[in-house]
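#lab-general

N.A. 3:47 PM
ok so I finally got the sequence cleaned up, no stray characters, all 734 residues accounted for. can someone with queue access submit it? mine expired

B.Y. 3:52 PM
send it over

N.A. 3:53 PM
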Amino acid sequence: MDGGSQSDCTGHTAAAYSSKLVRNKRGVKGARVADCAFNNPFWLLDQGSWTWLTAAHDTIQFDDVGPFPVGQGPSKGLGQNWPHCGIYVVDCVLPRGLPEGTKILGANAGHCTNGPYTVLMGIQRAYWVLTVEATQGVDVECIAITQGDHCSAVGNNPTNITSTKMQGGVATLGWAKGYYDPPRVGEPFTVRGTTNGGGVFNVTNKLITAINGATLTIASPGSPDLAQQAETGTADYAGRCKDDETPNYVTYGLVFAQGAGAQGPANFTLKDVVVRGISNTGILGSKLNLKPTDKFTMSNVLIDGNAVSGWETDGGGCTTNCESQGTMDISNVLSQWSGCVWVSNGVYGFCVDQPFGGAGDNLVMIATGGTWHWSHITSKNGMQDCFDSLHTGDDPHNLPTITVEYMYSEGCEGAAIKMGGGDMSLRNSIGISNCEEMKLHPENFPNNLPGWNSFLGANCRANDSIIFSLNGGHTLTVENVDNLGQQGVAWDFAGSCNGDCVVVMQNNTTMGFKNESGDAYMAGFYWTYPNPFANPASKLTNNHYYALRTGCPGDPAHDSNAVCADPLFVAEADVNHLNAHLTTGSPLLHAGVYLPATSPDYDGVVRPNPQSIGYVEGGTVPPPSGYHLANDYQVRVQAAFVDAGGKPVIPATIAWSVSDPAMMTVTPDSSNQAVAMITPAAGKLGHVQVIAKAESATATFDVLLTAAESGPAVSGTITTLGDPQPIPGRTRRQ
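B.Y. 4:20 PM
back already:
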């Protein structure tokens, strides 16, 4: 950041610019310049043709974390003017055409698992921040890609305000419907314009509390200027990007390929990268690799709070003309809160799902070839599907091989896991389809902006928790997978399978929870073609089914060694606060068939013979009844949280609650929010759960209340609330 321009520096030395330096080097323009670094990546471009000046196999090394504005400036204090861009701000981007073998390395590359990252910040409506389209052998590491303003490309458009009045601290606005949807109760609202009395509207990001005909009511807008009558202006959904108020937004963060048939990168490496807070799509496109021997590698990547999609592999208009080839090796990826805007760590706002013009897929794939290996993937809290590779097999002449292992999927409005293609395998994974949480339980996310979920209406949109699209003559293997949730169907089989598909399902657990909207539990299996388990080569053995409306076993004609009892998870009372680790009393312990391909389990534990059913071995945690608390005995409990690197952290806010307030109360400590006092209600007996929620992490503690002990009530000492809970995406510096 303290470097210089092409007229000041060579760009070949990690040194600050100073006019006192001896100018003994020749710069880009041939003039004598200092041996120092550039202060913006745009200086790596020819300022006339706007093409890269770097050569093949050059390294672009950032010397500090920035942020480095990418776009035309100055814009709200960010960036500088670039004569080449002029008024064409959308095209003021880092261009296509990176030379072969280019390395783009953040300041801490090589030891950047948890940052700090070098930040490339898009501004002034730039179309993208960085593209690697049609490149060969490019390597990007230790980079964070974001934008300057927190806003979305989707959501309600302006509404015309026809009159206003102010009474008792409440603003009432008359409005006329615009071209798009009318305002909604709960919507974050911003009013712009001037009053007839010469004042300025002061309604910014307030919630609409009532709509009655052509009258809007906004509580406590905080503006005496609204007292005048017949004032006019415009009102906006507060989250929508506006060129005058929130101009520092971009359409895409990182582009692999943009447009129908566009070629993506070959032999590309993406490592230790964050893409977050983009107004549209975090990562766009695919068509990866040029040859069957090419390899695409993506590891340790956070895709967080991008307003339309996380990674959308359709670069635009793709059918079967954007197919990847070679090997795609993708590991240690966290994609979350797609369809919402990232504001700060653990804080999101302005969520918009499909019924209101948005989307929200965390990870979505299109028709492709090649071999895809997804490992250690976490996909959470998306406004559409968590992981969607259902359409990868849309081209029957070029079917991919897809393996997914160690996936944790939870909290999306759509399906937890969707898979398609040729031969497929899913192992050591968990899909939790608590698909109503985003819409019906905003209280579970107290740090989010007010009104964050007012444009959600697609809860449980998929009707299936885990779905596979099969192609005849191919094999699907599902082993040691947990499928838990409240969709209509647990396991859905689609595609074209006429008795010639092989389906192997072993050591899986399926558990239903009541859907709050439909008041029903999940069904076990669904297919529209002949039963795939009727194929003699298929297997359906040592699986678990519980709380399903279709009962247990899932397929009585073909199931063998089914387990039909309560799984006795560590926490199973609430689908939104599950902990599917097995307690010492679980009937799933050592009830599976030994499968060497599933060892180690999700937690890295080597599986014994016989092994357990489900994604983890478990059995090291006592069942909920293992901790007894007399109902006249108070105890202090402490919640422990760690960041993505395992370092203990105290979150800004911890929300304490109990599963049944009638049985117990919880009182946070005023001096240390990580500590709380739990007090059982007199005479109450039975199980109750203490819950501490911070950002997107939850710590739980199960208690069995027993009869009162003799003597006076006493207070206990601090007890750690379970194991330290990681906060996904939380880092020491970002």
